[in-house]
Write a structure and sequence with these properties.
The protein has 5 domains: about 1-35; about 35-50 and about 305-384, conserved putative lor/sdh protein from methanococcus maripaludis s2 fold; about 50-60 and about 220-300, Efflux pump adaptor protein, beta barrel domain (Elongation Factor Tu (Ef-tu), domain 3); about 70-95 and about 190-215, Beta Barrel (OB fold (Dihydrolipoamide Acetyltransferase, E2P)), CATH 2.40.50.100; about 100-185, Helix hairpin bin (Helix Hairpins). The protein has 3 helices and 24 strands. The chain has helices at about 5-30, 100-140, 145-185, and strands at about 35-45, 45, 50-60, 65, 75-80, 85, 90-95, 190, 195-200, 205-210, 215-220, 225-230, 240-245, 255-260, 270-280, 290-300, 305-310, 315, 320-325, 330-335, 335-340, 345-350, 355-360, 370-375. It is about 30% helix and about 35% strand. The strands form 6 sheets. Strands 3-12-15-14-13-16 form a 6-stranded antiparallel barrel. Strands 2-17-22-21 form a 4-stranded antiparallel sheet, with no helix packed on it.
Length: about 375
Amino acid sequence: MKFPPLQRRTLALVVIIIPLLLLFIYVALRSGPLAPIAATVSTVESRSVAPALAGIGTVQARFTYKIGPTVAGRVKRSDVHVGDTVKAGQVLGEMDAVDLDDRVSAQQAAIKSSEAALRQAAAKETFAQTQATRYEQLLSVRGTSEETVVTKRQELAVASAALVASREDIARLRAELEALRAQRGNLRLVAPVAGLVAARDADPGTTVVAGQAVIEVIDTAGLWVDTRFDQISAEGLAIGLPAKIVLRSRRSQAVAGHVLRIEPRADAVTEETLAKIVFNAPPVPLPPLGELAEVTVQLGELPAAPTISNAAIRTVDGKRGVWKLVEGGLTFTPVVLGRSSLDGLVQVLEGLSVGDQIVLYSAKTLSAKSRINIVDRLPGVSPG
């Protein structure tokens, strides 16, 4: 059977177009926009997680000793510099008390004068005692009047009081002299503990007042990190919990520590909880005071609950949830999340049940009409 030329050309065209159309449909369904999206899935499991609390703080000295004179004077010498390591009892410097010797001499002179006054008061008291006794005897034989005896008794009381006052005065002057001599012993600046010289606030030749710091020493065994935590996440923070401290200058090295104290007052402006994190052992070398540090506190383990990977969480229309596999299709399921752990696991309080299958990673953004091709892993994505 022969076809007209036009029909033959039409038939040939159809023969060519149909396979091409079928090929196009096949390609579209396999690798085009209608193709299933490669995705990995995971199953919701009941697991307990150990959440962690992250914060940031600065290295501070727990104990700082400001060493200075107990009397006004001039710095005579300073034997240490900032950064020096010192031992307990080590002499760090010495003061030159400008007028201390003159004050000691004046005090000694005052004591001698008081001793003379004491001898005079004792003599007067002895004389008054003799007179009072004599007139008592005269009164017994009616050799004097009772009024005279009363007068002599009053003179004795006055003399006795003056003697007591003289003794108290000389005791006070002697105590003041001992205090001045003790001040001479305090002219040496001594380290109360072993530590590190953090500051030298006055150089030799500088005049300072009593109580003014000349040298500051920090106790290197008592360094801590003054840390701030977000109040929303600080639930479960407690004294004694282990912590990891990463100093800004040593980001590849985590130093072990623990929570020493939680401050009773929070920062109402920044809405942060304040805590002191101490090193289990002083880091070597010691970090400078004020260095920033990232702190991670390991909180207590939570009871088992439906748990998923953080990687499965998506945001659709402003809602947080996951893509759940339901009867071969996809359904976006909003979830209420609980606490999370450092290894990327998060507990689900509402929205999922143990055994549910959810999308973990997908090659493209998913929608409710998307078809997925479940694979073991996606290129460039580590297994979740």
